[in-house]
Amino acid sequence: MREVAERAGVAMSSVSRVLSDHPDVSPRMRRKVMEAVHELNYQPDILAQALRIGKTLSVGFAVSDIANPVLAEIITGAEKRLRAAGYSLLLTNSEGNAELDIEHISLLERRRVDGVILSLVDEHHPDVVAALRQLACPIVLVDRDIPDGVTTRGASFDHALGMRAATEHLLELGHRRFALITGGPERPARERRQAVEETLANVPDAEHTAYPGGFSVDHGRRAVLEILAQDSRPTAIIAGGNMLMEGALMSLREAGVRLGGDLSFVGCDDLAVAELHDPPIAVVRRDSFAVGDAAAELLLADLEPGSNADAPREIVLPTEFVARPSCAPAPR
Known about the structure:
Elements: H1 2-8, H2 12-19, H3 27-40, H4 46-53, E1 58-63, H5 69-84, E2 88-93, H6 98-110, E3 115-119, H7 126-134, E4 139-142, E5 153-158, H8 159-172, E6 177-181, H9 186-201, E7 207-211, H10 217-228, E8 236-239, H11 242-254, E9 264-268, H12 272-276, E10 282-285, H13 288-303, E11 314-318, E12 320-322
Parallel strand pairs: 1-2, 1-3, 3-4, 4-5, 5-11, 6-7, 6-8, 8-9, 9-10
Antiparallel strand pairs: 10-12
Helix pairs in contact: 1-3, 2-3, 5-13, 6-7, 8-9, 10-11
């Protein structure tokens, strides 16, 4: 910093004010200092800055399973918004293990991050809840229930909206026997299943069987094998999650089932596999990038007092059904 001050011909205190974005700096002073910074290729000491301003300008993001492409999109949305606000992102991956969630919450706290965004494996796990209650920094939960006694904001999806539309579409095509593959985090799985069951409850001759399990490709594969082994097969299958959809499509292809012919199929999330499949797969779609951006915006409302005083405690984004040829009239 001393060399920058000498090159710019200003006091070290002036350099400090420019580098910390102090408002009481003239445009001429800022220009002189920044020219010297670039000429000397000066890199500010981030740790020293953190000690000086009382902030690390970093945010922790604990992800349940980064192998899920939807979570990758959410991370991208959050990182872009936080970067624009001057924050870096520290990412952890829990690999579907709630015990790792607990370790990562502790790690991020020890790293002195200014706030955390969490897409947890199990937000109801007692030790996870205890860890959340002890966190002193602002929290935003992504698409999860808010546990009792935890002060947090939330950015989520209305999973029921798109799932209800998908079920209604299949009913209009004459389907009455349904199979629903469910699994994954409690909130999305619960909302999806409730939407399907409540919609079918209004149709006297409609019936369904649910196949709950883990949120994995393997569960999707095994559930379809069980479905196809039934004497009276359903005419429509709904896979309540992108990884479940991927596994289900594998088993259906291996069994030689013609989608949109032998039976109809609806998946979740508009991934490449859905559009490139033959025939293209009808899905319940959501804007994952947008929910990441919303989560970051909610966190910034707590990190930057006065930046968004009217920020809500929770933002809920819609989902929508996209009809494609994997859905067709029920076989007669």
